[in-house]
């Protein structure tokens, strides 16, 4: 005898068709059955609220009332809002819906000036019965994260006023103020960006650790993570270990763990970082650095070229094939390690006109690094001008700012009192402030 037992279960707020399935078995026999159940309140409420809105937006919310019965329904309406939205019009407070028909009422809803969340609830009362439908909405800024920064100076004993008005949404805005005797504080925002950079390829790892060799105090001061204190020594040493772990069997540095090919530019960048870190007293695996320098020496002999895209002095786009920029960075780093490749230096000296502007600076400073001031004076450009690189995401990853910084770094290290140092610093500072 088949006995049917009642079963009760809770379901979310729902209107539509439910399929109920049952499976039974006994010994080696089994069976199944299914049935469709219509689920609907006498009045089905459908609120067409958007998925999200922005502060200050106005949206029109159509609310549809469907009569699923065979009788006329007269009901009272009670719309409510919570959080960062509110209703600003006053439509009907009651509604009549014919059997099997539907009616629609339009509500004008305005989002507040703050970001956050809100909800729209429609309550319907029909005699002794009541029904409700609640829809939540997110109020979020219309644009992605934006930053504004500025800098300035103040003389001793003077008073300065800082205007912190930005026009940003108050609930989403925050501000930081750095005060220092060093002009390097002008670039605290850029250093902070590097310290918090979320990715970790070889180039990014070096870029995060390298500046901490020189700006340890500033790096500690600008850390803005709650409960987190920057340990510069630990960061730099961890960066060194990470780079060594990315060394390929041929001595070069791969971009990501598991990569099968080393990257020429990143390898030179790594060698420069490891060289400076060693000079600063950090533990650097001497054999790993030696192997890396041999890779660089071998790579120079291949005389690689790359396409250089830049704007000329008339702002016209120019594309030309030039000796690869990593070659001159390599020659410079080798000279810093007392491994100057004079034959390659002289070869590219004979092709000096073909070089990119930053390569000219690096080659000139390489000669000075080995004590040849005469050739340095002959080769050093009169100014960093004539071409403005268009940023590249391949090859030597060049950009106008990076090229200028490379030239400044080499000149500052080789000839810090040269008049061009001040000019390059001023120009580079202006460019950085445009980022």
Lay out the secondary structure.
Blueprint: E1 16-26, E2 29-39, E3 43-47, E4 52-53, E5 58-67, E6 73-83, E7 85-87, E8 94-97, E9 102-111, E10 116-126, E11 129-139, H1 188-195, H2 202-209, H3 216-221, H4 232-245, H5 264-279, H6 286-300, E12 305-312, E13 317-323, H7 325-336, H8 342-349, H9 357-369, H10 373-379, E14 387-389, H11 400-414, H12 419-432
Parallel strand pairs: 4-11
Antiparallel strand pairs: 1-2, 3-5, 5-9, 6-8, 6-10, 7-9, 10-11, 12-13, 12-14
| CA-atom Rg in angstroms | 34 Å
Number of strands: 14
Global geometry: elongated
Q: Outline the biggest β-sheet.
A: 5 strands, mixed
The helix count comes to 12
So, CATH architecture of the largest domain? Alpha/alpha barrel
Uncertain spans: none
Query: Alpha-carbon distance between the termini?
Result: 81 Å
Helix proportion: 25-40%
Q: Could you name the CATH topology of the largest domain?
A: Glycosyltransferase
When the domains are counted, the total is 2
Going by helix content, strand content and strand pairing, the class is alpha+beta
Order of helices and strands: EEEEEEEEEEEHHHHHHEEHHHHEHH
Arrangement of strands in the largest sheet: 4-11-10-6-8
Percent range for β-strand residues: 15-25%
Query: Would you tell me the overall average pLDDT?
Result: 87
What is the CATH class name of the largest domain? Mainly Alpha
Describe this structure in words.
The chain is an alpha+beta fold. It folds into 2 domains: 43-139, Sandwich (Immunoglobulin-like), CATH 2.60.40.10; 176-432, Alpha/alpha barrel (Glycosyltransferase). The protein has helices spanning 188-195, 202-209, 216-221, 232-245, 264-279, 286-300, 325-336, 342-349, 357-369, 373-379, 400-414, 419-432, and strands spanning 16-26, 29-39, 43-47, 52-53, 58-67, 73-83, 85-87, 94-97, 102-111, 116-126, 129-139, 305-312, 317-323, 387-389. The strands form 4 sheets. Strands 4-11-10-6-8 form a 5-stranded mixed sheet, with no helix packed on it. A hairpin with a 2-residue loop joins strand 10 (116-126) and strand 11 (129-139). The longest helix has 16 residues, at 264-279. The mean pLDDT is 87.
């Amino acid at each position: 005898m088949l006995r049917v037992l009642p079963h009760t279960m809770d379901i979310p707020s729902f209107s539509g068709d439910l399929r109920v399935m049952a499976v039974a078995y006994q010994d080696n026999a089994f069976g199944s059955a299914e049935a469709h159940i219509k689920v609907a309140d006498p009045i089905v409420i459908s609120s067409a609220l958007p998925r999200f809105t922005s502060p200050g937006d106005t949206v029109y919310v159509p609310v549809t009332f469907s009569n699923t019965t065979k009788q006329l329904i007269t009901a009272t309406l009670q719309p409510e809002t919570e959080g960062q939205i509110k209703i600003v019009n006053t439509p009907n407070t009651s509604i009549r819906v014919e059997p099997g028909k539907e009616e629609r009422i339009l509500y004008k809803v305005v989002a507040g000036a703050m970001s956050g969340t809100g909800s729209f609830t429609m309550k319907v009362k029909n005699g002794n019965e009541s029904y409700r439908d609640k829809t939540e909405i997110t109020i979020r800024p219309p644009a992605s994260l934006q930053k504004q920064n500025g800098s300035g100076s103040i003389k001793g004993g003077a008073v300065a006023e800082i205007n912190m008005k930005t026009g940003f949404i108050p609930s989403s805005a925050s501000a930081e103020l750095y005060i220092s005797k060093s002009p390097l504080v002008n670039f605290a925002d850029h250093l902070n960006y590097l310290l918090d950079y979320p990715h970790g390829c070889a180039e990014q790892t070096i870029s995060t650790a390298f500046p901490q060799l020189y700006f340890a105090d500033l790096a500690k001061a600008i850390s803005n993570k709650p409960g987190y204190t920057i340990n510069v020594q630990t960061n730099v040493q961890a960066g060194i270990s990470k780079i060594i772990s990315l060394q390929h069997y041929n001595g070069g540095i791969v971009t990501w763990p598991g990569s099968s090919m080393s990257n020429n530019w990143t390898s030179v960048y790594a060698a420069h970082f490891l060289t400076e870190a060693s000079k600063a007293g950090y533990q650097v695996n001497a054999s790993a650095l030696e192997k890396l320098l041999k890779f660089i020496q071998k790579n120079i002999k291949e005389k690689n070229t790359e396409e250089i895209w830049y704007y000329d002095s008339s702002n016209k786009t120019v594309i030309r094939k030039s000796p690869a920029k990593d070659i001159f960075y390599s020659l410079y780093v080798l000279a810093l390690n007392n491994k100057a490749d004079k034959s390659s230096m002289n070869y590219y000296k004979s092709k000096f006109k073909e070089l990119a502007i930053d390569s000219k600076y690096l080659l000139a400073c390489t000669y000075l690094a080995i004590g040849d001031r005469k050739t340095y004076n002959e080769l050093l450009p009169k100014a960093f001008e004539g071409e403005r690189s268009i940023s590249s995401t391949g090859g030597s990853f060049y950009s106008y700012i990076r090229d200028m910084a490379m030239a400044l770094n080499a000149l500052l290290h080789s000839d810090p009192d040269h008049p061009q140092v001040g000019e390059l610093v001023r120009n580079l500072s202006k460019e950085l402030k445009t980022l």
